[in-house]
From TrEMBL:
Keywords on record: Kinase, Membrane, Phosphoprotein, Transferase, Transmembrane, Transmembrane helix, Two-component regulatory system
Pfam family for this entry, one: HisKA
Catalytic activity: ATP + protein L-histidine = ADP + protein N-phospho-L-histidine
Organism this protein belongs to: Neolewinella antarctica
SUPFAM superfamilies, alphabetized: ATPase domain of HSP90 chaperone/DNA topoisomerase II/histidine kinase (SSF55874), Homodimeric domain of signal transducing histidine kinase (SSF47384)
The protein's name in its UniProt record: histidine kinase
């Protein structure tokens, strides 16, 4: 897939995801505003209904007193109205029923006036107020602790809060600024000129209550957006990984073609030479070309073996033949092998077998192949005169094998990907570094199946060190 196509897909998916997030944000914000408006209306309605009930209760008391007076039950009226009616004329003293009817409007007016003259704290039935408010809050499904209080306009102080009578000190408005500044209020006992007081409410947890109403939708939105985002990131990762894998496989095929082409050409040339009449008569020349054919055949066989080994690792078919392996012997033998390639280039190989004990439990074939791969890698990525040091030493976890070179070194990016299959370090203008990019992937796999560890220390232009540690025993 082309970079332009990947960029276009990434851009479209990013814009779409941001659009979904923006739309969800607007929907949630709109839902919050709607729920807040409903909450405000419900709380204000609860206050209005309670205020009307208080006024209706007082009007009922006045009506009962007036009706008792009208029916000639002066004593009953006096009892109902209490001290407010004790100075009013009794029905029997002022001329009978006709006088009662003519006096009724005046008596009701006097009752209303005397009720209005009472202190607000005496006009409010706190138990009735608390009961009606709690019922109204429950009916309106108003959750959370709602504070409420009654404010006396004449005395400029609060007379009760949450159904409790306030003392003179506790009525100080400074102690109830939350209620005083609240927008939830309704006037009590309105007259043509003013109101006797206010019924106020305040919701300290209003924000959290409203937020809880959309919490489930918010969590669901976040969950689905997270799933979409995760799938989006994973998709981009897979696309980039597949692109990288495709490029590495293409590079692998090109390298493999090149690796096989050279020995095939050499074998073909040697075969043609043997068939030449000038060569067939010379046994020395025949043996020379036959030796070349054998070497090139072995070279091809080694390359095929590497590919087959990785195929076995892919299918988990690797069976270790565990024996006691002396790593000092392994690096000495491997050093002799790589020295044959390094010395003709003017380089040197130093072997330092310092580990004692040096034996570990492992597969001899794979451990030897691992060390040879690392030495071959050090040789390939070194300048014209390779300087390679291979050593062993004991560490608390086992035996450590170090392969040090003074070659090209690696960048941080290369160190991150060096063990990836088919990955090969870029060598700039150098095009003589051959291989499939499988060697170090094989090294890491063999190290891990032996329960060991591997790390790299490298710097561009200063060479690299591969440090491999193997445990003494397999677990």
């Amino acid at each position: 897939m082309a970079k332009r196509t990947i960029f276009l897909i990434t851009t479209l998916m990013t814009v779409s995801l941001l659009g979904v997030i923006f739309l969800q944000y607007n929907l949630i914000r709109t839902a919050m505003n709607v729920n807040e408006q409903r909450y405000d209306e419900a709380l204000q309605d609860a206050l209005n209904n309670t205020a009307r009930d208080l006024e209706a209760k007082e009007a009922t008391e006045i009506n009962v007193s007036a009706n008792g007076y009208n029916s000639g039950m002066g004593k009953t009226a006096g009892i109902v109205a209490g001290d407010l009616t004790r100075d009013l004329p009794r029905p029997g003293l002022l001329g009978g029923k006709n006088l009662q009817l003519s006096e009724q409007p005046s008596y009701r007016l006097r009752l209303q006036t005397q009720y209005a003259a009472r202190p607000l704290v005496e006009r409010i039935d706190r138990e009735f107020l608390d009961r009606r408010l709690q019922t109204a809050f429950e009916n309106a499904d108003l959750k959370g602790d709602i504070e409420y209080g009654v404010y006396d306009v004449r005395n400029k102080e609060f007379v009760s809060r949450n159904g409790r009578l306030l003392s003179t000190i506790g009525a100080d408005t400074a102690r109830h600024l939350d209620l005083l500044r609240s927008s939830y209020r309704v006037s009590l006992y309105d007259t043509e000129t003013d109101a006797a007081g206010y019924l106020l409410a305040y919701s300290p947890r209003k924000g959290s209550v409203i937020f809880n109403t959309i919490l489930n939708n918010l969590l669901a939105s976040l969950l689905f957006i997270s799933i979409i985002l995760g799938c989006f990131v994973y998709t981009i990762y897979v696309i980039l990984f597949q692109k990288k894998l495709s490029e590495m496989k293409t590079d692998f095929i090109n390298n493999m073609t090149h690796e096989f082409k050279t020995p095939i050409a050499t074998i073909s040339l040697a075969t043609d030479s043997i068939m030449s009449p000038k060569v067939t008569g010379s046994p020395d020349k025949v043996m020379r070309f036959a030796h070349i054919i054998k070497q090139e055949n072995k070279r091809m066989n080694d390359q095929v073996e590497k590919v087959l080994q990785m195929a076995k690792l892919d299918k988990n078919r690797l069976n270790l033949n565990l024996t006691e392996v002396d790593l000092n012997d392994v690096i000495i033998e491997a050093g002799e092998y790589i020295r044959l390639q390094v010395e003709p280039r003017g380089g040197s190989v130093v072997v330092i077998p310092e580990a004692d004990p040096s034996s570990v439990e492992g597969d001899m074939t794979h451990l030897a192949s691992l060390v040879n791969n690392l030495l071959d890698n050090a040789n390939k990525y070194s300048p014209e005169a390779p300087q390679i040091v291979v050593s062993t030493r004991n560490v608390p976890t086992g035996v450590e094998v170090t392969i040090l070179d003074h070659g090209l070194g690696m960048s941080r990016e290369a160190r991150k990907n060096i063990f990836d299959r088919f990955y090969r370090v870029h060598t700039g203008d150098r095009h003589d570094v051959k291989g499939f990019g499988l060697g170090l992937s094989y090294v890491k796999t063999i190290t891990e199946v032996h329960g060991g560890s591997i790390r790299i220390e490298s710097e561009l232009g200063k060479g690299s060190s591969f440090i491999v540690t193997f445990p003494y025993e397999q677990r």
